[in-house]
Amino acid sequence: MSNQNMSVPALRRLPLYYRCVIALKEEGKKFISCTDIGSRLELVPIQVRKDLQAAGATGRPKVGYEVDELETVLKEMLGYGKPTDAFIVGMGNLGQALTAHKEFERCGLEIVAAFDTSPLKIGRDYFGKRVFPLNKLVNLAQRMNIKMGIITTPAKSAQDIADIMVEAGIKGIWNFTPVHLNVPDDVYVHNENFMSSLSVLINRIS
Hints:
Layout (H helix, E strand, L loop, with lengths): L7 H19 L4 E2 L1 H8 L3 H11 L9 E2 H12 L5 E6 L3 H8 L2 H4 L2 E8 L8 E2 L2 E5 L3 H8 L3 E4 L6 H11 L3 E4 L12 E4 L2 H12 L1
Parallel strand pairs: 3-4, 3-7, 4-6, 7-8, 8-9
Antiparallel strand pairs: 1-2, 5-6
Helix pairs in contact: 1-3, 1-4, 2-3, 7-8
């Protein structure tokens, strides 16, 4: 089954299942049930079963899922076995933090180059990634067949950056700015809005 046919909430749960399976494997477990996974993740077992079935995993009656097999299915579904190269634009504190985050590589994402407009950053290496001038993005993206872009610029620049990424042929944008980006229908934008998350958290603890 293609992950494009799964609901967004289900896709968000798959990495949780994957990390759970890896932990179980490290504990020496050979088989696991939906009840076990649900208990560890505080999810309803029937939801776990539906998600795993949608991902293509097949359990055995009274035995459950074979851990190695489930790991393979989830890894393939999440695209972890086939690395996705990405460009990041905006090498401020957030951009540098994301570039340094090694967990992305374990999840199949590799930031291969960074871009900025600041003369103080262009030409420098951050965590092994060279910073190029923004006007090089289109040419490099097309030459390297880059399909994913990450935006960590100030809000006022976000739409301009998105336009450049679209021109470059990028089809997926991870947007860390609070700006609603206008892009063609065939370009997917995922907004990572810290302020919204913080507002919900503050509301809950108040």
